[in-house]
Amino acid sequence: MRERVLAIVNLIAQYVMGAEDSHISEQELITELMAVGYEADEINDAFNWMESIALRPATDQEAAEPMIQMSTYRVFSEHEKIMLTSEAQGFLVKVRAMGLLNNEAQEEIIDRAIRAAEDPVTEQEMKLITILTLLSRSSSLWLREIDCFLENDWARIYH
User: Angle at the Cα of 56 (from 98 to 72), degrees rounded to 5?
Assistant: First the structure.
């Protein structure tokens, strides 16, 4: 079920990023998701998860702290190594090394991934969790990076 909820979140995120000119109501989006085979409970879980992330208030420290800081390297615990695939770990290391995450954001992403995981978290799931975390922190500042994550277009991040 977790994979289906994350797939719904992915579809919603892709729609939101591609729907700058056209607007669709939440009900129309739900109808479209149900038409392609998703259950109402799964759709509700996806919206609830996104809402909980988006409504989490930013702390004063998050607002004042720049995302790019001096580079550090985080060592994954044994439990994290089990719960995150090597590809998911590599994705986080890459995004952190590029300066797109600070220490606090990286810890939040890892924590969310571990708490939501029943099976090891894949790279695609880690991308979605990262996107939602970045959106919850400062949505308008990260649209280009989010688009690059979804398209695996790493060259555009450097330019």
Answer: 25
Residue 134 half-sphere exposure, CB side, CA atoms within 13 Å? 24
Q: Closest Cα to residue 95, out of 78, 83, 108, 82? A: 108
Distance CA 155, CA 95 (A): 13
Q: What is the pLDDT of residues 13-57, one digit of tens each?
A: 767 666 555 666 777 778 888 888 888 888 888 877 777 766 666
Both tokens of 28, joined, read: 């129309």
Question: What are the two backbone dihedrals, phi and then psi, of residue 77, each rounded to the nearest 5 degrees?
Answer: -70, 170
Tell me the backbone φ, ψ of residue 23, rounded to 5 degrees.
Answer: -115, 140
Count of other CB atoms within 10 angstroms of residue 96? 19
